[in-house]
Amino acid sequence: MNPKIAAFLRAHEPATPCLVLDVDTVEHNYRRLLAAMPHARIYYAVKANPAAPILERLVGLGSSFDAASYEEVEACLAAGADPALISYGNTVKKERAIKAAFDHGVTMFAFDSEPELRKIARAAPGSRVYCRIFVGNDGAEWPLSKKFGCEVAMAKRLMVLAEELGLDAYGLSFHVGSQQTATSAYEAAIAKVAMLFTDLQAAGVKVRMVNLGGGYPVRYRQEVPGIDDFGAAIMGAMAEHFGNALPEMVIEPGRFIVGDAGVVESEVVLVSRKGEDDPVRWVYLDIGRFGGLAETEGEAIRYAFRTPHDGGAEGPVTIAGPTCDSVDTLYEKSNYRLPLALADGDRVQLLATGAYVTTYASQAFNGFKPLAEHYI
Question: What residues contact 165, with CB distance under 8 A and at least 6 apart?
Fold first, then answer.
């Protein structure tokens, strides 16, 4: 538990549910990542948490930004970001959104299909473009589907076409999945992208950048490899496959930058059982899947809990949210145990919830207000 956040919660007792996030921890994580991969340019994945205090702190640190929408481009610009340091990284964009970003100075765009590439050529002529390819997601607790990326053979053809359309065929990208716990995933992806990189250069395409995406993990209930482990694996693979002719390197961290900087405080609404002799208690919180904990889908991301009764006798629980929807059940199969003394009215904290929580919250499902946010 972050001492600064703990002190804020004690002093202010904010209404629940709420997120409290320490912006100094954001800076600390940014600097840790920079030290682990000094040859890479950091493009913060704005979708992880687009709050102005975070963006403003990162602007001051010299960060670049990965925006998934024109609205995120606007948020970066409002925070003082240089448009030349913004990448429009979503491969699915409306043409008018591309033009709006380009008109505001953004000149770096992702694509993974010919129709998208042609939209960029029309709406943002001469821009730098990079093609996203498929790679494996083994080891990721929040894997990414084939919604994004294309096969290597298609990527090669599209990069050649990009130059024919007057665009700058700048680079290639991949993403090994969010909350990636295996350093080997990056090593395999780098080997794959390096072969295409070499083929493109041999074909006369002036490709010169590799975007390694995000996925760098934070600790929830279990230990994960440290960022230095990922940095060593990535730089080792880059040196192995590119030698001394290293391309420009881009990384797009989101969760790693803000995840452990935030804590959600919630109130227990009810503790009950489904049968007289049922050993499993149901613990209902005032935040659930529709309140921002969408990554509990499939019990993929398993948050750690802190309660006022920690250290006492525990028992098995199913943890659910407050809404009248059975899908709003967070953990049923992941062997959660909470203190037997836990009761309605108790405040509990969900740790490392700074990423992908505030922006996943619904606006008013069942009338519940969106999650409150406090940045300190």
Answer: 117, 118, 121
Tokens matching residue 28: 């600390």
Q: What is the CATH number of the domain that holds 134?
A: 3.20.20.10
Confidence category of residue 50, pLDDT binned at 50, 70, 90: very high
pLDDT value at position 135? Answer: 79
Residue 13 inside a domain? The answer is no
In the numeric block, the tokens 């040196």 are attached to 239
Instruction: State whether residue 305 is helix, strand or coil.
Output: strand
Confidence of residue 296 (pLDDT cuts 50, 70, 90): very high
Is the pTM above the cut of 0.85? yes
- Say if CB 20 and CB 265 are below 8 A apart: yes
Q: What percent of the chain has pLDDT over 90?
A: 84
Residue 284: left if φ>0, alpha if ψ -120 to 50, beta else—which one?
beta
CA–CA gap between residue 189 and residue 233 (Å, rounded): 12
User: Contact at 8 Å (CB) between 265 and 16?
Assistant: yes
Domains of the chain: total: 2
Q: What is the pLDDT of residues 109-126, one digit of tens each?
A: 999 999 999 999 999 999
Among 64, 88, 220, smallest CA distance to 142 is for: 220
| Structural domain span for residue 32 | 23-258
169 shares a domain with 54: yes
150 carries an active-site annotation: no
Catalytic residue among 76, 131, 150, 324: 324
* Residue 209 structure tokens: 């950048």
Residue 276 falls inside a structural domain: yes
